[in-house]
Amino acid sequence: MHIGEILRADCANGEGMRVSVFVSGCTNRCEGCFQPQTWDFNYGKEYDRTWEEYILKELSKPHYAGLTILGGEPFEPENQPDVWGLIREVKTKMPQKNIWMYTGFLYDVDLIPGGRKYTEHTDDILDNIDILVDGKFILDRKDITLRYRGSGNQRIIDVKSSRAQKKVVLSPLM
Fold it and tell me: Scanning 10, 28, 102, 104, which has its CA 20 to 30 A from the CA of 39?
C-alpha cells in the first residue's frame, strides 16, 4: 500500500480533530474526484512500519478524536491488509479513539461475503471501525452543504449498529 497524504489536525473528514490517512489506489475513478492523483496505486510513499509509527504517535496526542482512512480507496483488495494492520494497532493502543473510513463501494453490496471487494480482511476492518461513509462521489449530486460527504447519494453509516442489527443503520450525522 502507498500513502498519498497524511493530514494532521483535520476537521473536514469526520467529527472532531482527526488524523486523516489518504491511501493510494482507486478503481472507482469518480468524475470530479478531489484527489485523482490517488487513483494510482503507486502514488506517494510506500506504507511501512515507519509511517505506522508516525501515525500512531500523532494520533496519541489528546486533542485528536480519532483516525480517518480515505483515499484513493481503502477497500481495494490490495490495500485491505495494511489498512487492517493500522486499524488493529489503533484499536489495541488507543481504544478510546474512533475510526472513520470513506469508500466509493457500497457497504451492503460490495463489502459483504461474495461482494466484489470482500476479502479475508473486510470483516475485521468493518468490525473495528465506527463510521463508514460509502458510495461513489457523483458530480451531478455534488452538494457542498452536506456534512462529511461530497454528494447526496453517499451515506454516513453507523457501522457498529449496522453490524449488530445486520442491516444498514444510518448515523444521526446524516
Answer: 10
CB 134 within 8 A of CB 107: yes
Q: Quick one: cell of 100?
A: 472513520
Longest CA span, the chain: 41
Q: Give the CB-side neighbour count of residue 170, counting CA atoms within 13 A.
A: 7
**What digits encode the pLDDT tens for the residues 104-129?**
999 999 999 999 999 999 999 999 99
CA 122 to chain CA centroid, Å, is: 12
Q: What is the CA angle 152-154-160, rounded to 5?
A: 140
3-state secondary structure (DSSP) of residue 133: strand
The CB density around residue 21, as the number of other CB atoms within 10 Å, is: 28
pLDDT for 128-150, tens place per residue?
A: 999 999 999 999 999 999 999 99
Instruction: Quote the pTM value.
Output: 0.96
